[in-house]
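Q: Structure tokens for this one, please.
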Amino acid sequence: MTRAWTVRGGKYGQREEIALREGLIVAGWEEVEADLSSYPTVDALRDAVQSFYPHHGPHTTNNWTHQLWRFCTGIQVGDLVVMPRKYQSVIAIGRVEGEYVYRPDSAPGYRHVRPVKWLTTDVERAAVAGDLRDSMGSLLTISELSRRNAVERVESLALNGSDPGYAGYIEPPTDLDGLKRDIDEAGTRQLTARDLIKLWGWNRRTAEAIEDVEQALRANGLDVEPHFTAVRLDSLVTVSAADTAEPGHTPGASRAADEAAGTQEHLGTPEKDLTWRIGNLPFVPADQVECIGIDAPLGRAVMRMVEKDFSQLPVVGVHRRLLGAITWESIARALLGGHPTTIASALVAHPATAREEHELFARIDDIQRHGFLIIVDAENVVMGLLTAVDLAAELKARIQPFTVLEEVERRLRRAIKLPLEDLRASFTGNKKHLAAKVKSTKDLTLGNYPFVVDDDERWGRLNWPFERTDMVALLDTVAKYRNEIAHWDVDAPGEDSDDLAQAQRLLKLLKVVDRDPSGQ
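A: Here is the predicted structure, written as tokens:
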């Protein structure tokens, strides 16, 4: 069965020219002065790698071992290989024609090779869909492209320069051990940010969840690109072993840099940037963004904008590369100058754009000014659309829970008409010492109210027309919800739960016992 692999041409692309000229893929690791095929097992090769790089920790040498093992024994004759070209927006694709060869007389870093027939050397990166391009963009020198119909897609890119894409669903690993096995086998593992945090039992990226997942990743020598907080919850991230890059080309510089990396391995990776990014918002994804070609008639764009109530349309060329946009304002300006018939005549050549990793609050003014941002990737391919309407909807999703909970607390303060001794009596056990600090309901937190009403005598004095046990349970649920959203987290409060609905239900009940002066 044919498989597909990524083999990079070195940190600075130093091996690309020789690889393309001589029909090879080259594995680097200049200090490994031994025939890789002489080691019968992964464990034997790992021992050798550790002897060649004694100053590196186990995470690094284990990862390098698996990369070299893939190069020597994993890649088979007939497999496809992809080499992203350094400093160029293209990739080369070839087919492996021979077994691993060790060339002891070659220069360091060029001794481990495989014969390859290059099928094409200039496929545009923009032609590769984002998920496959992210896999190819891993820092690993040697990794397998094993999921999401990768082999068929690479073959299509080699034959006609187009990627048919993948629309299915790949089952994520069920636990951390499964994730690590996948990474050992292929070098990387793609999954959604949602599926990643679920491995540790989280559904939302709260401050506690982020810290928990980051610590676990560091402890297991794993890295994530892009960071799982910088993208939408259902966007793909790529997990790989940390310290995956092969040693540098210059022996002295390589050793110094790798010793520093080894020290970092024990200290843990640096703190992640906590800045809010465009990718944190649920913008319209690429497959739902309607675009129009530069050669289309203007009338077609007008019809589409009227029919679908669009205020703008991204204008794209080959591979959905952004060329500009048309808006009602640009159409009106073109009409003032004559009788435009083409998209080009009404084109906004430089519309407001952003990348997912761009800082959110630095771009809000652009959204207010233009009404939209077109989300693009590194190849200027349209990846999404963020409009003022989307921003308003997200603002509502984030603010509404806080406003509902605030009204719940205000109404509870008015509706709990009990003497001070009753309020203090609700503090029992290890919280009894706090009772003296309570002067009125203003001193109670939302978490105190379940204890206040969970008493037959106090409940009787309230004279509320509800079932006490049901009210206690509801108050307890809403109090826990309040604690969960105490911080402005990456994901909107209440996502994937009915907690907001429970808070709204409590508010509706409280309006029965705490009626506004207007009677509403």
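A few notes: The chain has a mean pLDDT of 88. Residues 388-415 form the longest helix (28 residues).
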